[in-house]
Amino acid sequence: MKNKFTFTFFIILFIFNIHTASAQLIIKNKYLQITMDEYSGRFTIKTVEGNPFEKNDSNCDILNNTCWPPTTFASIRYNNKIYKFGSSAGDTLFSLITNNKLIYSWEIEDCLISQIISLCMVKSNPSIYIKYNIDNQSDNTNNIDIRLCIDTAVSKEFPVYINSAYSRITTETNCADLREWYSIDSIRRPQLYLKYLLPEDNNNKLQKIIFSSWDKFDKNKWAIKLDKKNPFYNSYFFSKENDDAVGIYWNNLLEPLEIKDNSFILSIGSSKIDENSLKITYHPETNTKTRSISFQLKNHGLRNIENISINFKTDKSNSIAILRPEKKIINLPLFKSKIVQSSYSVNANMMDEDVIFKITAKYPFKTSFEQKINIYSSKP
Predict the structure, then answer these.
(1) Which of 35, 54, 152, 349 has the maximum number of C-beta atoms within 10 A of its C-beta?
(2) Is the whole-model pTM more than 0.85?
């Protein structure tokens, strides 16, 4: 009986493996690999060598690849009727590879939707271009909306998303009209830097971006009730497992026989390109009692920043205003801030005049700020 069960089990496993292998359509270059299920159009993405400027981002999952078919999928809202793209509710017309592109074409009622995924380079960064071509073949005007659920593999322990203003997204969030954001795979030792971009054109009518958990996108056909206190946990009872996913919602009103595209770009970034990460979060201040000048510097970027060189200078000679120290070296971990301070002294015989304090922070870019104060009024 045991041998019969074992034999049956291996036959089922063998058939499953043959089906799975034949269902995979794959395109890749030396940087990235995309695998699509030819029956549903669902897909997953991983790095091969990754970004050429990064040494440690090879063979990393970008989208989750823990089951088959993959868990990144699209939904279609056709005049308030909601369908999962590639489901048996419609008809799959074809699924193929052509010109190093993955194409999945699916028809529902009088609407033909083609998902086209290709590899490209954006500003020297290996990238993936995802496009939904929507063809209204009806004689009527129709609302044909798309929701793309991206099941990210950012970090199951501590998902890290940063919006275009370099502020961190930590809980379920609705971001209206957000067209650019970032993610990293680890807050302690980031290796994989991702940039998400939605091109802005007349066809790409973006409604919103939702940051939530994957199981909410899976259980809710379209709209999601957000819990702004929930840090991307799934909704299973007593579960504290991060299940982060991102939903992109496009709204489309198509005239009879009109065709529109909704598109999305995902790039593998580099720690060397986030040049806006170092910010002075409030203006330098002077304290006349302690004779000090101080400001707060914050790391809004995608990595820890070490050996930041900060220089304090004035537009006068040292006999007028002496700054101690004139230079400081500090380190700033990811998302941390630090108060930087320098004291000054003045020549007791100097005249009432203005002095401009200049602060410059470098690594490897430059952030500078100038503040004008009246040095005479600063004397005790």
Answers:
(1) 152
(2) no
